[in-house]
Design brief:
The chain is of the alpha+beta class. The protein has a domain of 166 residues. Helix content is 28%, strand content 28%. Strands 1, 2, 6, 7, 9, 11 and 12 form a 7-stranded mixed β-sheet that branches. The longest helix is centred in the last third of the chain and has 26 residues. The protein is rod-shaped, with a radius of gyration of 46 Å. It starts with a helix and ends in a 12-residue tail after the last helix.
Length: 249
Amino acid sequence: MNLSFRSLLPALLVALAPGGEIGAHPADNSQARFKIEPRRVDIRLTFNLYTLQQFYRLDANSDGRVTRKELDSAEQALQAYLRKHVLVTINEEDTDLGQPRRMERMWPDQSAGADVAAPDYGQRFVDFIFVREWSSDIESVWIGFDIFKETGDLHVVAGVFEQDGVSNDVSFSRSEPEYLWDTGFTETKDKKPAATAPPPEAETPRNRRFHPLALIVGFIAIVGTWLLLGKVRRISRGGFRIGPPPERD
């Protein structure tokens, strides 16, 4: 029996793919959500198991499925990978994703089961939540994804920036792996009110002040008045004459 190369191609792809998976996997999408507050950024990264398998080998025993225990055991390694390859800069200062929260599987065990077979990797998603707090008002947030070496050129991260109830969609890809978000927040600094001149005090007996010059002028006026009155009295009594003295015999 003669077999053409075209008929053998699907079998070759399965044999060469790691873990029995087909290497020509369709373009995969992940999600990222950044909720920005004045001094905090809540970050949610969502990947399916197929993508996570590119970051870290989840199927430890190579049995073609990922168990709950295998996924839980890989949590710290996956968080470490994301902290290294999802880059964050706040106010032009390099930082990281912040404090990690519990990894959350986005499928119920009751209906889908705790274990996931390889054909279902693309339909099972996992959330990774981080919280990055900042000591001052956040004026800008830069995000860069350095994951496309593992995921391939067709991978796209559908991002959303949320602030003050407004959402803005952003796509991250190998050709456009970064985005800068300007928040519009400004640093609130304590400012002292401008000094104003106190209102003039009403002149009262308590705050009225006597200056030395006024005292001297007042004293001279009193003395002058007293001397003038003395002369007037002498004139009225005949004790004071005006003109030359009378002639004596």
